[in-house]
Design brief:
It is built from 15 helices and 10 strands. The protein is of the alpha/beta class. It has an 8-stranded parallel barrel with strand order 1-2-3-4-5-6-7-8, surrounded by 4 helices. Strands 9-10 form a two-stranded antiparallel sheet.
């Protein structure tokens, strides 16, 4: 197997999600994990650090610079690479020299804190240019390369060993096919961006189920360099009801020799990221084949001590079942899949023929429901608070299934309608979002179609409300 130079290959974590940034204590814990597991790069790019994106021209305050300095020092103490990112793309005027000066001021502030590695991100921005920029550069790609190249040269003059990263506006295969950023955007980046600069890429999709060697090799010919994988496999900022604690998977070990690094942008809630990052580290260093499921089971054993309770110890097999319920975006874990299929087949069948299958199913979901309840006893309270809303929803669904199966299993109720006394319209699966979700149904072929029959009698009147236009209204996706 081809090997890579460990000092040049970036392996680690991007704090690059939408939502509350991690706390200092969480970051320090992350750095300890990374140092122990052989990861080498922490990429600071939280979308909701105002100075990172929304007000990128403004310098950090004294308290903010002190906190960033502590992070940089903590990384240096653990021999981790700290990469600082700015995202000026929402409103930058590429042709104005004063904008370059603003970027230099921001980087200069970080250089004085000891930062040596930088990035400019142009993801998730309006797909349009200022007329003056368009007249001068003619394309997004040329305008962005002009700015990035200038900042790269300026940074290298002050820090010759600086690593410099760039995130393009189309950062996945689907966006490139849709010509986001304009015709020939990636080819222009390949020609015009200085070759020492890394280009971030998420794969065929924003949340890529698989990233193949063939996909990356095709991209190499366009970018004229190995891409840096910004991996959103475990990101959950797009769906607040879910989190993902499954293994790093869908990427072959051979991929490592075709990219300049693998960086995970994981769950917004820090406590959920133990298994994803543990298995990423194992993947980076593995030899031979990669067994994602076995890596997951091993990491779950290591995670179990975080689930110490004030009562009796929790069982590893129950933690695995819970983890399987929140596995990966495109798949449930094996035990969760089996539980779902058992319930689906049961409720689709004739209750008169259920026999002992109903009792066995109720016993299985009772085990999971009890484990969810026992999580209230966790001594690691931040972990419990992160879990609480999600597992509460899971408990509600399990409870409804249990009551339904119990009712239908009672002699004489096989054909009777079930009227629950607790899961009532408006309070259960209620609210506007839930009702909107019932209007359109995703199909297995990837299309969206109207739901065959929408029954929603609980429809409180909507009060019109004027809403301010936000920057996100202009986003292309």
């Amino acid at each position: 197997m081809a090997t890579h130079e460990p000092n040049n290959f970036l392996a680690g974590v991007i704090e690059g999600f939408y939502g509350p940034p991690w706390t200092q204590a969480e970051r320090f814990e992350l750095f300890d994990w990374m140092a122990a597991w052989g990861l080498n790069t922490y990429f600071y790019a939280p979308k909701d650090d105002l100075n990172q994106r929304a007000i990128w021209r403004e310098l950090y305050s004294g308290a903010e610079t002190e906190a960033l300095g502590q992070l940089i020092q903590a990384c240096q103490q653990r021999r981790l690479r700290f990469v600082y990112a700015l995202s000026p793309g929402l409103d930058i005027r590429y042709a104005h020299p004063t904008e370059l000066d603003q970027l230099k001021r921001r980087f200069e502030q970080m250089l004085t804190l000891g930062c040596q590695n930088f990035s400019l991100l142009f993801d998730d921005i309006p797909d349009r240019m200022d007329p003056e920029d368009n007249q001068r550069f003619g394309s997004f790609a040329s305008a962005q390369c002009h700015v990035v190249n200038a900042l790269f040269r300026w940074t290298r003059e002050r820090c010759p060993a600086a690593r410099f990263l760039f995130c393009p506006t189309p950062y996945c295969g689907r966006m490139a096919e849709a010509k986001l950023g304009g015709e020939g955007y990636l080819a222009a980046v390949g020609r015009e961006l200085l070759p020492e600069i890394d280009v971030c890429w998420t794969g065929p999709e924003i949340i890529a189920r698989e990233i193949t060697v063939a996909h990356v090799q095709e991209l190499q010919t366009v970018l004229r360099r190995k891409p840096l994988i910004w991996d959103n496999l475990h990101a959950n900022d797009y769906d607040g009801r879910r989190f993902f604690c499954g293994p790093y998977s869908g990427r072959p070990p051979e991929l490592r020799s075709e990219v300049s690094g693998l960086l995970s942008n994981p769950n917004t809630e820090f406590p959920f990221n133990f298994v994803p990052l543990r298995t990423l580290a194992e993947f980076v260093h593995c030899r031979g084949t990669w067994d994602a499921r076995q890596a997951y089971l091993a990491a779950m054993r290591e995670w179990l001590p975080h689930f110490a309770t004030s009562g009796q110890p929790l069982a590893l097999e129950d933690l695995i079942l819970l983890g399987d319920c929140y596995y990966l975006p495109h798949e449930d874990g094996a035990e969760a899949s089996a539980l779902f299929e058992r319930g689906r087949d049961l409720v689709a069948g004739n209750p008169a023929t259920w026999g002992g299958e109903a009792a066995a199913f109720r016993q299985q979901i009772a085990r999971l429901r009890e484990f969810c309840f026992r999580l209230t006893e966790l001594r690691h309270r931040p972990l419990f608070y992160a879990l609480n809303r999600r597992v509460w929803e899971l408990r509600e669904e399990l409870d409804l299934l249990d009551r339904y199966v119990a009712f239908k299993s009672t002699s004489g109720n096989e054909t009777n309608a079930y009227h629950p006394d607790s899961h009532l319209p408006g309070t259960y699966r209620g609210g506007l979002v839930a009702r909107l979700q019932r209007l359109l149904q995703p199909q297995t072929d990837g299309t969206i179609a109207p739901t065959a029959q929408v029954s929603d009698r609980f429809s409180p009147p909507l009060v019109p409300r004027k809403r301010r236009k936000s920057a996100s209204d202009d986003l292309p996706f």
